[in-house]
Write the structure tokens for this entry.
Amino acid sequence: MTRLAKLLSTSTFRWLLAYCLLFSFAAAGVIGYIYWQTNDLLTRQLVQTLASEVKGLREQFELGGMRLLDRVVGERSANAGNGLYYLGSADGAKLSGNLSGFPSELPSDAGGGAFHYIRAGATGNERNAVGVAIAVPGGFALVVARDIEDQREFTDTVRHILLWGLAAIAALGLGGGLLASRGILGRIEAMRAASQTIMAGDLSQRVPVTGAGDELDRLGQSLNSMLERIEQLMTAMREVSDNIAHDLRTPLSRLRSRLESGLREARGGGVPRDTVAKSIEDTDDLIKTFNAMLSLARLEAGTVGERSDIDLGKLVADAAELYEPLAEERGVRLVVDVAPGLTVQADRQLLGQAVTNLIDNALKYGATDAPAVIDVKALLVSGGAEISVGDHGPGIAEADHLRVLKRFVRLEASRSLPGSGLGLSLVAAVARLHGGTVRLEDNHPGLCVVIALPLAVAQTAGAVPAVRKLEDARA
């Protein structure tokens, strides 16, 4: 399609053209009404003026007869302006007036009408006039008229101005439609070109935004946000693929080697129990990793069980109690601090899994030197409820705080320890699913992971006094 054809086929141009036509019809109606009213007003004024003059001349005739009438007509003819007069005898001789004779176009029976005349002593085209013929007793004829040439020129001028104005409105509307369509078409073409580049595989491309803040900019911003999310998901998918290949290759290779070794030993009379046990252990680790991946996929897809109001403090205390035997075995002391009556609306199983993941991570990576302390808390804060698990181990560098929340991310210091790198990803997914957030803080020394959750609606109204008491106690 040519550029003009594209321009004319845009919906913007069609809408503006339809609006322009509608506006032109409305303007034509208004213009016609104005012209008609203007002409009607001038005509009524003219008729009233003629009627008034005729009445006055009749009064003059009644007062002084033909002599006074002849003198008045003569005086008015001398200073007539647009006034036209003719007074003639019964034999057609002119007695007074500024008309050369009785207009042939006027009826002689006291009727009115339009006629043409040439001004006395002037040469040129005929002029238009409107007048009335009056029969005077004695066979005399009186004509009272008005020159309407100036009025006709005025009404013609008004008509031309209105018509030219209508044409200008139509031209401006059409030109405005073309310009608006051209601008919008240019922006849409830029969006289309960007989408073609994106479809070709360049996810870094973005839809251009002018900064005008109009609907196209808002659409572009929404599309760019969607593209950023898609790019993040694609990047995460590539990272997951790379991490799966990296992290699962080692246990699979180890499992295969162990099974080969067991197969060789089996030829000598049986498979050692240690080989079978370690193979089962590696298999369990793989199953756990795949289960964690499946759980994470469900969480990010928004799949959640039935939510209910749960006592957050009790849930956290139960999770800590579950890990107390393992903590004692490793020489770690769990310090539990939970506020009573904390109610949140959540999936009990998912939230409990998130808390146990945090405690398990703290035992694995934050309690390397015994005796160690792990603080497990569920407290009320001004923004809602917070679950925190803090250790006093080596911690995580601030630059890695966001990175470790991604899938399969394992820092070099933790590579030698068992794990899949999905624990904190699951915690972050559970928090997002419940409208909360996860943040990592420096515990001076060590790491503190905090899950912030909104309170249940029923408890929100009464939460502020408890928050103040808790903050006062902390102070």
About this structure: The first strand starts at residue 83 and ends at 88. The chain has three domains: 3-153, 225-299, 305-474. The chain is about 55% helix and 15% strand. Residues 58 and 65 are 9 Å apart (CA to CA).
